[in-house]
């Protein structure tokens, strides 16, 4: 019993998917991880302290030829299990329960990670160039929670939390009548409602909604996604024990939300989403530019060659049509907007370093224009990240008509604007909760 408890506590304490200890024993990195989880596990289960110490010793030590087979098999099994536990507990449970900032709920990411600015980025890229020059640089996979461009758009919520929170309060009031028609006890609570609004922002079309078919398609996608998300969260319904009454209520709420007669909400949502969409497009271009030029091998997931506003599977498993890759003779509104942002960036060809990494340099005119915003000398080349931040500051300010954005807007803060309120909220707070 105590051995099982020791294994459970060690797995729960792991801050990463797995360690990579081989028969030669643990290296410096894995030793630090094992020390950390041993201390946490022992604090949580002091009665299993001896078993915890014995397991960590077995995981850490080189293989002894006398009992090498059993020790090696145990280590392999433990390291295989830890990844599965982390994936199911974090990616497929916690990420569906936390709805205040969906952009951080991503495979391999952490909602508690704190940005460190351009300097930290360059330090990480230098480390990557020396340690993993041929590592895969992926922004979308079959397993990501939403398409890379939907995620890039949702990152903007952190730049204007007050704007978003006010909008959520407004929409909550607009849809109160719909909420009141739902069965008692089956209404979406504040975190679920927030989750649905942010998810809708991520997939909202760039061009204004056209005919009723656009709304029907959006509704179908959101309903499929909502059922999956609620079951993964495992709070009111699950795959093992579906609560069809609750799921029907959520479907009904989404049906009212995206009904063409719900004009006040649809119009307000589209108007509010506009600046988020524009800033998100700049994020998308900056993200793609970094991926193509930073150390590593850029991976373009099928379907993300153009704008990818997909949700988690099954939404991101829809059919792929190669015709989407060709620019039409007559550009759509989406294409014109994206091309305009490309022209706005106005970048020179990169100069390749011996390691294959590139450093994007703005033209001299743009360096002079952006230098004051990033507080750099006009002669200093600006990295693609700084360029992206300088561009994004324009869109970020556009998110608030009343005043410049708060210090919670990273692009404004890093571009030298004067903050008008305290910095970002703590990662474990809920800046967008419905009052």
Your description of this structure?
The protein is mainly α. It contains 16 helices and four strands. The strands form two sheets. The protein has a two-stranded parallel sheet with strand order 1-2. A two-stranded antiparallel sheet has the order 3-4. Strand 3 (351-352) and strand 4 form a beta hairpin. The chain starts with a helix and ends in a 21-residue tail after the last helix.
Task: List the keywords.
single chain, 435 residues, mainly alpha, two-stranded parallel ribbon, two-stranded antiparallel sheet, 4 strands, 2% strand, disordered C terminus
Give the beta-strand count. Answer: 4
User: What's the mean pLDDT score?
Assistant: 78
Q: Cα distance, first to last residue?
A: 45 Å
Q: What structural class should be given to the helix and strand makeup? A: mainly alpha
Q: Report strand %.
A: under 5%
- The total of helices stands at 16
Overall outline: globular
Largest sheet: 2 strands, parallel
**Helix content, binned percent:** 40-55%
């Amino acid at each position: 019993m105590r051995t099982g408890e020791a294994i459970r506590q060690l797995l729960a304490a792991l801050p990463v998917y797995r360690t990579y200890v081989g028969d030669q024993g643990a290296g410096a990195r894995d030793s630090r991880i094992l020390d950390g989880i041993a201390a946490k596990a022992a604090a949580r289960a002091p009665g299993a302290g001896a078993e915890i110490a014995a397991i960590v010793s077995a995981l850490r030590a080189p293989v002894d030829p006398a009992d090498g087979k059993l020790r090696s098999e145990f280590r392999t099994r433990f390291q295989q299990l830890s990844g599965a536990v982390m994936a199911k507990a974090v990616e497929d449970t916690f990420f569906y329960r936390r709805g205040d900032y969906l952009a951080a709920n991503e495979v391999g990411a952490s909602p508690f990670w704190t940005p460190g600015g351009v300097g930290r980025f360059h330090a990480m890229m230098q480390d990557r160039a020396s340690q993993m020059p041929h590592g895969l640089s992926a922004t979308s996979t079959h397993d990501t929670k939403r398409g890379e461009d939907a995620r890039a758009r949702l990152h903007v919520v952190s730049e204007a939390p007050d704007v978003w929170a006010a909008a959520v309060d407004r929409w909550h009031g607009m849809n109160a009548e719909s909420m009141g028609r739902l069965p008692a006890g089956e209404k979406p609570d504040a975190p679920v409602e927030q989750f649905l609004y942010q998810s809708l922002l991520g997939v909202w079309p760039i061009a204004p909604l056209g005919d009723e078919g656009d709304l029907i398609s959006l509704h179908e996608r959101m309903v499929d996604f909502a059922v999956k998300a609620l079951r993964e969260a495992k709070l009111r319904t699950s795959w093992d024990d579906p609560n069809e009454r609750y799921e029907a209520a959520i479907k009904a709420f989404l049906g009212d939300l995206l009904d063409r007669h719900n004009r006040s909400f649809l119009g307000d949502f589209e108007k509010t989403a506009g600046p988020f969409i524009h800033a998100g497009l700049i994020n998308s271009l900056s993200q793609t530019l970094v991926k193509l030029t930073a150390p590593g091998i850029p991976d373009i997931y099928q379907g993300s060659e153009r704008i990818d506003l997909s949700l988690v599977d099954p939404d991101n498993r829809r059919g792929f049509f190669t015709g989407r890759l060709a620019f039409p003779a007559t550009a759509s509104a989406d294409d014109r907007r994206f091309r305009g942002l490309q022209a706005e960036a106005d970048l020179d060809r990169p100069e390749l370093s011996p390691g294959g990494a590139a450093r994007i340099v703005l033209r001299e005119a743009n360096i002079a224009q952006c230098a004051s915003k990033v507080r750099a000398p006009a002669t200093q080349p600006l990295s693609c990240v700084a360029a992206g931040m300088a561009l994004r500051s324009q869109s970020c300010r556009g998110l608030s008509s009343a005043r410049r954005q708060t210090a919670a807007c990273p692009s404004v803060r890093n571009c030298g604007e004067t903050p008008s309120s305290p910095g970002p909220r703590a990662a474990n707070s809920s800046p967008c909760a419905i009052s």
